Amino acid sequence: MTLEAFADTIIPGERRSPDDRAVAGAAAGGGAVAAGALELLRWDATGLHDSLDGFATALDGHARAYAAETGLTLDETVPPFVALAFADRTELVRRITTPGHPEKALWVSLALFCNMAFDSAAHMHTADALAAGHPGLTALGITPPDPDGRWRFPRFGYGRPLARLHPDTTPSGSPA
Amino acid sequence: MSSTERTDVLVVGSGFGGAITAYHLAAGGAKVVVLERGPWLTAPDFDHDFKLGSSYTRAFDFVVGEGMSILGGNCVGGGSVVYFAAMPRAPRFVFERHGSIGRRMWPAAVSRDTLDPWYDRVAESISITQQGWQDVTYAGGLWAAACDHAGRTANPVPAAVDLSKCTNCNWMMAGCHFDAKQSLLLNYLPAAVAHGAEIRPLHEVQQISRTGDGGYRVHYDVMDAEDYRLRGESGTIDAKIVVLAAGAGATPVILQRSEQTLGKMPHAVGRYFSGNGERLNTAILNEDKVREVLGLTREDGLGYAANQIGKGPVVASWDRLDGSLPEYTRYSLEQLYFPPGLGTILAEVPGATGPSWFGVDKKEILKRWQSWLIIFQMIEDDNEGVFGPPPAKGNADRLSQQMLGVGRLKYDPRPSTLRAWAMADAEVKDILERDGIAEVAAWTNDVVGAYTVHPLSSCRIGDDPATSALDDRHELRGHPGIFVTDGSAVPGALTVNPAMTISALAERAVPGIVRAAQERGVEVTYGAPAPGGGTSGRRGVTPLLPTLTR
C-alpha cells in the first residue's frame, strides 16, 4: 500500500474505488498504479523486487518524521506514507529525491520504474498493453502497430524545404 | 589446466572502434578475436517492444554515475546498433580547441584536413545518405520551420540509413528490424568475419595482464544471455596486440583494473571524460500555432502531433558552429527523438511551480506527448569527468537484469559548461517559444545528473603525456602493443554527433596497429579495400601512411 502511494505520487491517478486510500485521486484517469507499477517493481528483472519491503518501511519512516516535523497527526489505520495527504506525499518525495539527500539514488530508482510502468508498460509486451487499453500508453497517444506488431509510417513528413541551409555546408552535407 | 588460447590481435568491443580495426587487421592477414560483452542480435531479434528483456533493453547499457549518466550500446555492433545513425563530420574549429589545458587538445597531426581522407574511408564503407527535404520527418521539418521563422538556418543531417527500407518507425534505439540503419552488422563486421575474425558475444573483459614474451593476457567472464547480473566461466586469451574499444564508459575501467598487473597507467586514463556537451530540451507544441504561425499541416489536417513518427535526428541548426566565436559558445541544436522508458522521466514541466519531473503537472504534459519535440544540444564541455576506483567486475554494479547499473563516473560541470548549456537553453527557448509555437523546458540534471548518449575522451589521444593517455597513433603510453580506438580516444566534445569522427579515428589508427603487429612477428599488411570492395578511400589515405607507421 505504501509503494502504491509512492507510485501514485510519481504519476497520479484516479481512485480505484471510493475507499481507495493508496491512490489519492489527484488526477483523472489511471496513473502509475493502474499502469502496473507494482507488477513491474515485483518482477525480478528490475533488481528492486527483493528490496520492496525495505523501501516501504523506509518511506513510512520518512513519513513519520515528516509528520512530526510538520505537526501532522497520522491516521494509524493505514501506513504512515499513505496517511499523508497528496500534497504532503509530493513534498516528501521531492525532499528525498533532491540532490544531496543521502538516499536520493534509491528513491530515484524506484521513481524510474514507476514512471516506466506508465510511459512504456515495461512489464508487458507493448502491443498487448496497447490492445488492453494500458492507461499510460493510451495517455501518451501511442498508436497501435500494424498486424505484424511492427510500426510503419508511410506518411512521415511535410515533404518540402522548410529552411535555408547553412552557407558553410560541405558537399557531403556536413559542417565545414 | 587447459592450454592457453592464443591470437595475434585481441579486440575488446565490437562497436565502431572494434569493428573497424578488426576488419582491417583480419583482412590484412592477422588472426583476430573480438570479445563483445553484449549479445549478438540481428534484424529478426530487433523488437518493437518496451518490455524489459526485449532488444530495447538487451542491447543497451545505462550506467548511472555521480553527476553524469551514460547510455551506450551493449551488443555486437555496439553503439552502431542502437544509435540514431547521424554521421556528420566534426567542424574544423573543433580540432583547434584548447579546453582548459592551455594548449591544443588534439595531436598536431590531426586536423579536419588530415582527418578528411579518413572520413572518406568511412563514407566509402558505411552507406551514408545526404538527406533531402523530402526525407525529413515531421519532427525535423517542424524544427527547420521554427529555425527559419527565427531567422536561423537548418540542415538535414547526413545519416547512415537506407531510406528505401526505412519505415520511420522510430525504433532505432532497439536495433533496426528492417536493416535500414546501416549498422556495423551490415558492413565492417561481416567483412571481418569473412576474413576469419572470430566474434564472441557475451564475453566481458575484466582486465589485462602481461605474458612472459612481451604480449598480453586478456581475462574475461562469460555473461548470462538474459540476466547480465549473472556470470559463467572465466577465461583468458593471449595476444600480441590488444585493441581496446569497449566504449568510453568501459575502456578506462578495464585499464584502471589492470593497473595492478600491467603497472602504472598514464594519468589521463579515466580522466578528461566528456559527455560531448549533451543536454536535452523538450518543447511542447501548440498545434494551432504550428498551423497558423509556421504554416505546417499534415495530410489529415493536424499540424504536428508526430513525436512517434520518424528516424531519430533528421535536422540540425548549425548557426553557432562558427570558428570565429569563442570556445564554450559554439554548439549545434539538433532535433531528436527519445522513446518512452528513457525519454520522459527527465523531461520537466515548462514553468513548473511544483515538482518539475513527477506529479500532477508532469502527467498533464505526458498526455501531450505526441506534440513533444525534443532538441538535443551539443556544446563544448570542459572534459570534467573522472572515473573513481573500478567496481569488482564490469564497468558498473548492475541493478537490473539488463541495462541499469551504477558506475563510478563523477562529473561536476564547470562554469564554462554550465554557461554554454544556459546559452543553448535560451536559444532553443527563443526559437520555439516565438509567437507561442511551444513551451520549452530543459531536462533536469537533478535526477540522474547530466545525460550523455555519446561518452568520449576518457582515454584520449594527444601530444602532451600529462593530459593524454594515448599518443597520436592511439597507443597507450608506457604499454606498447595496447591501442585504444573507441570514443574514449576522442580528445573532447565535438559539437556534433561523434560516430563519424570515432570511425575516422579508428580507420586512421589501423596503419599504426598493423606496424606494431608486424614488429611483434605477426604477418599482416595494411591496405584492405572498403568492406564492400571500394578502393578510392584507400587511395586517398596513402600519402598519410608514412606518418602513422613511423
TrEMBL record, chain A:
It comes from the Bacteria. Pfam families: DUF5987 (PF19449). This is Uncharacterized protein. It comes from Sphaerisporangium rufum.
Automatic annotation (TrEMBL), chain B:
Transmembrane segments: none annotated. Residues 526-550 are annotated as: Disordered. Coiled coil: none annotated. Gene3D superfamilies: FAD/NAD(P)-binding domain (3.50.50.60). It comes from the Bacteria. Keywords: Cholesterol metabolism, FAD, Flavoprotein, Isomerase, Lipid metabolism, Oxidoreductase, Steroid metabolism, Sterol metabolism. Residues 451-506 form the Glucose-methanol-choline oxidoreductase C-terminal domain. Pathway: Steroid metabolism; cholesterol degradation. One of its GO terms (molecular function) is steroid Delta-isomerase activity. Its cofactor is FAD. One of its GO terms (biological process) is cholesterol metabolic process. Its EC number is 1.1.3.6, 5.3.3.1. Residues 8-40 form the FAD dependent oxidoreductase domain. InterPro entries: Cholesterol_Oxidase, FAD-dep_OxRdtase, FAD/NAD-bd_sf, GMC_OxRdtase_N, GMC_OxRtase_C. Residues 65-272 form the Glucose-methanol-choline oxidoreductase N-terminal domain. PANTHER family: CHOLESTEROL OXIDASE (PTHR47470), FAD-DEPENDENT OXIDOREDUCTASE 2 FAD BINDING DOMAIN-CONTAINING PROTEIN (PTHR47470:SF1). Belongs to the GMC oxidoreductase family. This is Cholesterol oxidase. The lineage of its organism: Bacteria, Bacillati, Actinomycetota, Actinomycetes, Streptosporangiales.
